[in-house]
Write a structure and sequence with these properties.
Blueprint lengths: L3 E5 L3 H13 L3 E5 L2 H10 L4 E4 L8 H9 L9 E5 L4 H10 L3 E4 L4 H11 L2
Parallel strand pairs: 1-2, 1-3, 3-4, 4-5
Keywords: Phosphoprotein
Pfam families: Response_reg
Protein name: Chemotaxis protein CheY
Amino acid sequence: MSKQILIVDDSASIRQMLSFTLKAAGYLVDEAVDGRDGLGKAQSKAYNLVFTDQNMPNMDGLSLIRSLRGLPGYRATPILMLTTESSDAMKQQGKSAGATGWLVKPFDPPKLLEVTRKVLP
């Protein structure tokens, strides 16, 4: 069975590049335009992995992670931050919120797939 991945990012071009990379590797992908949209989709469908940006309107990435971690179905689901934020302080906030890992934009497709394979069972 193919793995379901949710991409949450307010940038259409980033969502498109991520989606293309992941679909080409055989994953099933849904997209959300911000944290609120992503949370709604995650509440109506089970995902095996969530990628989220940090800086988005309506709900940022850290708030989304905290909200997802509060849902029974997402306590152990890998959640990867994919953002331009790279400070150690921000990474620590991500870890505290429950992020599984941190990737900095722009992303390298082979590296993205390597990390994806590592976190998906």
